[in-house]
Amino acid sequence: MVGTAKEIVYYFYGGGEMTMSKSYLTKYSAEIIKRVKSNLSKEVQDFQIETLSKIEIMDNYLASYSVNVSSKEIFQVVKEVFGIDLDIVPIYKRALPQPSSTEIINTSSPRLLLDTYLEKNRREITEKKIRELIEFIFGINLFGISSLKNAKLSLFSKGHWLVQNNKDIFSIHTGPLDVYLEISITNYFTEQTGLKKLPIDLKLSLCSLGFSYDNETGRCYLTNTTGESVSDDFKNKMMKVITDIIKKNYSHL
Asked: CA Rg, the chain, in Å?
């Protein structure tokens, strides 16, 4: 059964409750706000919901449907909160039945495919399990995307920017189905450091993972020669290398 998200404690200014005008507009639809509030507390104000992370918004929204959640609600919240239209995201081969398999899986549309997996796992459906299914089917790590909010990293994937802030210093581009990866610097990084290419320590660390370096563009890139998606484990290693160097050398930017 879908669990209830952990209790959230709010802090108020000046010893009293912070108030907002009735004209305050949230970045989420009325339906999302209503569902999230119903799962948390009726006392929670719309402006307080703005302080929640994208994962907390999604989890509380889906938890409000309990075990009755379907692809309709999942596709809606992923599109509204993360800006990702799962209807047009390519499906990973691993989510499709193998030729030798006798398992019946409806692959006629991404929604029906997800609904099939939901039904197979209905008794153990949780918000975490739903995110795992999305990563398994579409190769999208929503928890990882949410955690990049203040990581100084931009991420272009699935055809558009999933994370991008003015003060990001490195940029990650992925091709269709994550067969291709590219790491580059941002204009902000150049403005702050004077460097026009990836710093040597990051270049060497990425090359040790198997990336190639383009001396002309100053970027590192990798293409999986098998034509398969780069593994989640490899992408996690790549992210750790980049974030560790940011924390060590560029946290002040």
From this structure: 21
> 154 and 96, same structural domain?
no
Q: According to the model, what pLDDT value does residue 86 have?
A: 93
Does residue 52 belong to any structural domain of this protein?
Answer: yes
- Residue 232's domain comprises 150-249
Q: What distance in Å separates the CA atoms of residue 51 and residue 56, rounded to the nearest whole number?
A: 10
The better pLDDT of the pair 183, 97 is held by 183
| Joined tokens for residue 31 | 């339906």
Same domain, 52 and 173: no
Name the one residue in this structure whose structure tokens are 């928890």.
143
Does residue 56 belong to any structural domain of this protein? yes
CA dihedral 120, 85, 97, 228 (to 10 degrees): -130
Q: Tokens for 207? A: 């090359």
H helices, E strands: number in the chain: 10, 6
Domain-embedded: residue 1: no
Whether residues 129 and 184 share a domain: the answer is: no
Tell me how far apart the alpha carbons of residues 106 and 112 are, in angstroms, rounded to a whole number: 6
Q: How far apart are CA 92 and CA 177, in angstroms?
A: 7
B/e letters for 196-208, b = 16+ CB within 10 Å, e = fewer, are ebbbeebbebbee
Q: How many residues are present in the chain?
A: 253
Structure tokens at 169: 């210093």
Q: Give the residue ranges of DSSP H helices in 87-179.
A: 110-120, 127-138, 142-147
Question: What's the domain count of the chain?
Answer: 2
Residue 123 has pLDDT above 70, yes or no: yes
Choose one of 114, 143, 172: the last residue of a domain: 143
Q: In this model, does residue 13 exceed pLDDT 80?
A: no
Query: How far is the C-alpha of 84 from the C-alpha of 80, rounded, in Å?
Result: 8
Same domain, 37 and 102: yes
